[in-house]
Write a structure and sequence with these properties.
Elements: E1 2-3, E2 8-9, E3 24-27, E4 33-36, E5 41-44, E6 50-54, E7 65-71, E8 77-82, E9 85-90, E10 95-98, E11 108-113, E12 119-123, E13 128-131, E14 141-144, E15 147-148, E16 153-154, E17 158-163, E18 168-173, E19 177-181, H1 182-188, E20 192-194, E21 200-201, E22 210-214, E23 221-225
Parallel strand pairs: 21-23
Antiparallel strand pairs: 1-2, 3-4, 4-5, 5-6, 7-8, 8-9, 9-10, 11-12, 12-13, 13-14, 15-16, 17-18, 18-19, 19-20, 22-23
Length: 226
């Protein structure tokens, strides 16, 4: 870690994870640190003293691991795991609660809450889902069809998601990038694909009803038409 008072690099105080593979880290809205290793989560106070270690969050079998950790708009902490499904931190009991299996592989990679407080889960192997955490198990996950227009095959492996300051959510897959616009969803109810390798979003418009994307090799700019 870097000491910002003198910009010197010093070891993290928790010796147990100093030489451990780190999968993901999060500083939450309370300035507390969460560090995810292979199959456990370590929770630290704002001074980096250990608060609690949640060991064996998922079964310690080959290829299992923690993919990401996320704080939503309400301060809830979510953990996505490889082969172990989705977990939510319960502050009242200081434990993690597991959710029903997702898709065929149960491998959520990222969870995301958009500006309308809707949840999305990006998986590695089962595509994208709308997530309704308070619904019954049968209605909890709504699969979103995403088709690779170049290969004419379903796109199933996603690793990142971001929302711009207008209307669109961008989901990044292993082979291309896909866009979901709120307006498009209301009209066509589907993800609109764009065959690009990397993307830079420049949005200066205050509102938008249509989107126009320009593509080229390497860096790509998405222009929003008012």
């Amino acid at each position: 870690m870097v000491d910002k008072s003198n910009y010197q690099i010093r070891p993290f105080p928790d010796k147990e994870i100093q030489n451990t593979w780190i999968n993901f880290m999060l500083v939450d809205s309370r300035k507390e640190l969460w560090i995810c290793t292979r199959n456990q989560v370590s929770h630290y106070n704002s001074d980096y003293s250990l608060k609690k270690r949640y060991g064996n969050l998922i079964p310690a079998v080959p290829n299992n691991g923690i993919n990401s950790i996320y704080e939503d708009h309400f301060g809830n902490i979510w953990v996505c795991t490889w082969g172990g499904g989705l977990y939510k931190y319960l502050k009242n009991t200081d434990t993690f609660m597991s959710f029903p299996a997702l898709g065929t592989k149960n491998t959520p990679f990222k969870i995301f809450q958009d500006k309308d407080d809707q949840y999305w889960i990006l998986t590695w192997g089962d595509g994208i889902y709308r997530f309704h955490p308070d619904a019954t198990e049968d209605n909890m996950y709504t699969h979103q069809e995403v088709v690779n227009e170049k290969l004419h095959l379903p796109e199933t492996a996603f690793f990142s998601v971001v929302q711009d300051d207008v209307t669109a959510i961008y989901g990044y897959s292993a082979t291309t990038s896909f866009t979901l616009s709120k307006w498009w969803t209301d009209i066509w109810k589907k993800w609109i694909s764009a065959r690009i390798c990397s993307i830079t979003i420049k949005c200066s418009a205050r509102s938008s009803k249509t989107g126009k994307a320009t593509f080229g090799p390497g860096l790509t700019t998405v222009d929003i038409t008012c």
